[in-house]
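Pinned message: reference record for Transcriptional regulator, TetR family
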Amino acid sequence: MSVPRGGRTGASRSGRTEATKQKLFDAALRLVGERGAAGVTVDEIAAEAGVAKGTVYYNFGSKDALVEALLRHGVDLLSERLRRASALTDPSAALEATVDEALGFFAEYPSFAQLLVSEMWRTPGAWRETLELLRDDIALILRGVLDRLAESGRLPAGVQPATAAAALFGTLLVVALDWHVFHPERTKEDVRESVIVLIRGVAGQSGR
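Predicted structure (tokens):
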């Protein structure tokens, strides 16, 4: 199959754009995680990413738009990992796998957990509406696994999947933040086991 004239150039340009956005994502996360979104300037983000200030405006238009894109991009990355984990056939294994993936993601991007926690409960927040939608995306994935547990008879009576999904998401966020800020010496395996003990109770398991 022949490549249309300019097609390869377009693909190359798209790849460079995504690489630049990833650099800005990583740079903004480092700075926002240290000082909060309000305390970071576009100049600082550009300098941290090693790009011109105009590159930030070209790709996002403003700092607020960059932070919103940062939130969306981070949740997209997390959602992709959780969806893969939630696809496991056994719902109990799928639930544990989602915990693994979430903790692995927050270990890789600890500042993202800090950003989510700080902005999600800020009242009023500049990105509150966006964050509510993003929270719902994650909760929906978790609820899908919990619905499967309920259908298999392994969810304790009285536990509502929607409420449990919200509680699990909140637990993972707070645990990840506590791990990053107060107990960085703990390994992911230690943190995982602490969460899994709780999860196995919800999944109707006594252990393996």
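Pinned by admin. Summary line: Residues 78 and 105 are 7 Å apart (CA to CA).
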